[in-house]
Amino acid sequence: MEEKLQGRLIIIGGAEDKNGSKDILKYVCSTIHKEKDILVVITVATEKPKEVGENYKKLFNELGVQNVEILQVSNRMEAHQAESVSVVKKASLIFFTGGDQLRITSTLGGTPLQEEMISSYKKGCIFVGTSAGASAMSDTMIVKGLDEESPRKCTLKMAPGLGLIKGVIIDQHFAQRGRIGRLLVGIAENPEVLGIGIDEDTALVVDDKAFFTVIGSGAIYVLDGCDITYSNVSEQYQEELLCIYGVKMHVLKKGNRFDLSRKVPLEEDRKSE
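Above: the chain sequence. Below: its structure as C-alpha cells.
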C-alpha cells in the first residue's frame, strides 16, 4: 500500500439503504456542496442504465443535491467522446452504480474518459462505488468466484480494475452471499495485498492518508496474507480445496478505523468502546 492515496473514496458493499434512514447516501451527499457542486452518476455497469440512473438521481435530489447528472456510456466509442469527458471534468463527485464490474473496466479502460477520471481524482474529485462499482475501485478486482462454498484453488477470476486504490482486493455483498471463501483464494494468489470484504449497506470511507472509516449497518472484513506460512494454491488440480495457514483477519464495524499503510486497525477505537 502506498503511503498516501491520491484522493478520497467511498466504497459501498451494495444494497445501501434507499428507503429508510439512507445513512450511507446521506453521507455521500454531505461530502459536497449540495447547491453548487455537480454529482455525476455513471451507469456503465448496469444493464438498465436509464432506470438505475433516474432512481439515483431522484434519491440524491431528495437528499438535497441540486445538480445531479447521469452519464450513460454504453460502448467504448462513447468513452472517447468529448461530451462524456466534459461531464466528468466538471464533477465534484462521481458515483458508480452496481451491475457488472467487467463492464466498467472493459468499456472505460484506456479511453480519454478513464484518463479524465484519473486526472479528476488526483485533483480532488470524490469517487463512490457501490457493489460492482466498489470492486472496480482497486487495481486488481474480483470478476467471478464461487459463493457460499469452501475455497477451491483456482476458481477465482480476476482482472485489472480502475486503480484508484492500490494493494487491496475488494469484494462486496460479503456476508450476505457467503464470499469469504473466494476472498481467501484471492489473497492466497496475491498474499501481498489486503482482501477487504464489505457487507451490504456498509461502506469504507478512505481518505488521502490511506486510513478508512467504517459507516453503515454491517461489517468490514480485512484478510491479511502477509504472514501466510503455507498454501497449496497452484494451477494444478484446480478444483481441489484450498489449504492455507497463517491468515490474519480483522472484523470492523461502524466507527472503526483502519490504517491501510501499516495494515492495522486503530487501537484507540477499541479502547473507546
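The chain has one domain: 9-150+159-186+195-219+251-271.
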